[in-house]
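User: Is it possible to get a 3D structure for a protein together with its bound compound? The compound here is benzoic acid. I've pasted both below.
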Amino acid sequence: MSPVFTVDQHLTDVLESFDEAANPRLTKVLRSLVAHLHAFVVETGLTREEWMSGIEFLTATGHKCDDRRQEFILLSDTLGVSMLVEMVNQDSSDGATEATVLGPFYVPGAPERAMGESIAPEGSNGVEIVISGVVRTAGGEPLSDATLDVWQVTPEGLYDVQDPAIEPMSHRGVFRTGDDGRFQVRSTVPVDYQIPTDGPVGKMLRATGRLSWRPAHTHFMVSRPGYKTVITHVFDAASPHLGADAVFGVRDSLVVDFSTGETGFDFVLDPI
Ligand code: BEZ
Ligand code: FE
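Assistant: Yes, that's possible. Here is the predicted structure of the complex:
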């Protein structure tokens, strides 16, 4: 017997329920989200048990979040949504530095550091590295007074916020360019590391035979008044995981050579 009330009529009812929202953008986003969700349920023939598993998965994801751990960002990253949002919002010129994911381990308020100072604490393991270059426009004009918020994992492959034994703000620092737009950051060579797998996202990766590695990288958030902030990484060309980043964040233009201990990289910002 064919149903009297079809799934199409049901979808229309739900879509129309958003028509009175005062915010037209909210209506548009919710209508699209609901339409795709309904299509997903129909296309997969989703069972009640599978829908409940999905709800339990999202509930567990929420329970895993606190002020140090953001499992929803990790989920968005590993489903490729964070990188897709970057791509959809990329409004920079061809010559500008490519953006990649922010990730869940950015911490605002890192200490201001002098030109050439190390973000690694005294006595840190790991091989020393200097990353230097110019913050500039696509036309080559150097940008003074730009800030570079830099963070990376320790040589042991953990962010400071992942382990209370690590000194807070280790491997983090904010640098400022001089009049010539130059910056110099000292650190340790970044290492490949695994994203946290002790929560629902790890369960999803294991269930699907996926790897949890991120290729070695140093994070940069580069800002200057009047210019678009770029959030990006520089990746180590020697990493064996460049081709299989768990969060799909690698871009060829961001891969650099860390092998000599001195790495050059210019950040190119677009005006607002
Ligand atoms: C990171 O690079 O810090 C990162 C990005 C996405 C997920 C986990 C970690
Ligand atoms: Fe990272």
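The pocket of benzoic acid (ligand 1) is lined by residues 74, 77, 101, 103-105, 195, 214, 247 (CB under 6 Å). The first strand starts at residue 128 and ends at 137.
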